[in-house]
UniProtKB/TrEMBL annotation:
EC number per UniProt: 1.1.1.94
Record key words, sorted: Cytoplasm, Lipid biosynthesis, Lipid metabolism, NAD, NADP, Nucleotide-binding, Oxidoreductase, Phospholipid biosynthesis, Phospholipid metabolism
Origin species: Amycolatopsis halotolerans
Protein localization: Cytoplasm
Chief subcellular location: cytoplasm
Protein name: Glycerol-3-phosphate dehydrogenase [NAD(P)+]
Lineage top rank: taxon: Bacteria
Annotated Glycerol-3-phosphate dehydrogenase NAD-dependent C-terminal domain residues: 181-322
The keyword Cytoplasm belongs to this UniProt entry's keyword annotation: yes
Length: 338
């Protein structure tokens, strides 16, 4: 008997992950907010609004009814913008099976509260933390729907649940690993979007590979500092959910955060750049939340702070570059002897 998965969110990543689950042998119910998307998926096995020309597996059925979507699901995968998760989940909670595992596919930090997505899920759904999982990694949706090889990390406090989820999404082209470090995976996934904005800005300004490599490397150092302050395992940031996701997002033109950063670097205002980006760039909304999270824990994150200043138009890109380059010099490693 095949396992049943519900995916809430029929955007690019929700659609792509539904494909992974179906190709791994699961029956998939895909919830979509827009009726035209639901009808297109059911009528033509295609999501023309995100992946025109891509035929989805037959095991995916779409619906706009949250109760229908979640009925009988062994696991419920949440894939909405980070800043709308709380409100959406509050509306869906009455229909969710109390025995189902809730899995976050979302990479962001909630504004105002500074909560990670797993924390929002625990607070709103009121479920056992062992029923909450996170999936992260270098997973560009466009490559996934082309069935190009990729890997990810399934993180859950309950190792047995992590292995069950691993089996559910182990497709011929998608290789999932397990972890118990939810915090590390979530911090890696959230901050890499901000660093991708930074590397995009650098590219838009015409800076070279040295500058972009520096931003990626020092961005990883910032991410690791924050993750460590929140109790994450250092090895997580050296893996797929850390450096793997960071490299993919910062280097690829398929990354919406990188693409939006390029527009900012070319001189567009944040409102102009957002208006030209069809999908949500989580780094824009999460950047300020990450800075607040770091400030509350006494963690220094100069690249992230510079990105926020550019987004809020308190600093020009040139001023940000000069500010970062003019900072006092110090050892590369934070634990190095002074």
């Amino acid at each position: 008997m095949s396992l049943r998965a519900a995916v809430f969110g029929a955007g690019s990543w929700g659609t792509a992950f539904s494909m992974i689950l179906a190709d791994a042998g699961c029956e998939v119910s895909l919830w979509g907010r827009r009726l035209e998307v639901v009808d297109a998926i059911n009528g033509s096995s295609c999501n023309p609004y995100y992946f025109p020309g891509v035929t989805l597996p037959g095991g995916i059925k779409a619906t706009s009814d949250p109760e229908e979507a979640s009925s009988g699901a062994d696991a419920i995968f949440l894939c909405t913008p980070a800043q709308t998760l709380r409100a959406n989940l509050a509306a869906w909670a009455p229909f969710l099976d109390s025995k189902a595992t809730l899995v976050s596919l979302i990479k962001g930090v909630e504004l105002g509260t500074g909560k990670l997505m797993s924390q929002v899920i625990a607070e709103v759904a009121g479920c056992d933390p062992k029923q909450i999982a996170v999936i992260s990694g270098p997973n560009l949706a466009r490559e996934i729907v082309a069935r190009q090889p990729a890997a990810g990390v399934v993180a859950c406090a309950d190792g047995t649940v992590a292995v069950e989820l691993q089996k559910m999404c182990h497709a011929p082209y998608y290789r999932p690993y397990t972890s118990a470090d939810l915090i590390g995976c979530e911090i890696g996934g959230a901050v890499k979007n901000v660093i991708a904005l930074a590397t995009g800005i650098a590219e838009g300004c015409g800076l070279g590979e040295n500058a972009k490599a520096t931003l990626v490397t020092r961005g990883l150092a910032e991410t690791a500092r924050l993750a460590a302050a929140m109790g994450a395992e250092s090895q997580t940031l050296a893996g797929l959910a850390g450096v793997g996701d960071l490299v993919a997002t910062c280097a690829s033109p398929l990354s919406r955060n990188h693409a939006l950063g390029v527009k900012l670097g070319e001189g567009m205002s944040i409102s102009q750049a957002i208006s030209m980006t069809k999908q949500t760039a989580e780094g824009v909304s999460s950047a300020k939340a990450v800075v607040e999270l770091a400030r509350n824990r006494g963690v220094e994150m100069p690249i992230t702070a510079a990105v926020v200043a550019i987004i809020e138009e308190r600093m020009t890109t040139q001023n940000a570059i000069e500010d970062l380059m003019g900072r006092s010099v110090k050892p590369e490693r934070d634990d190095a002897e002074q």
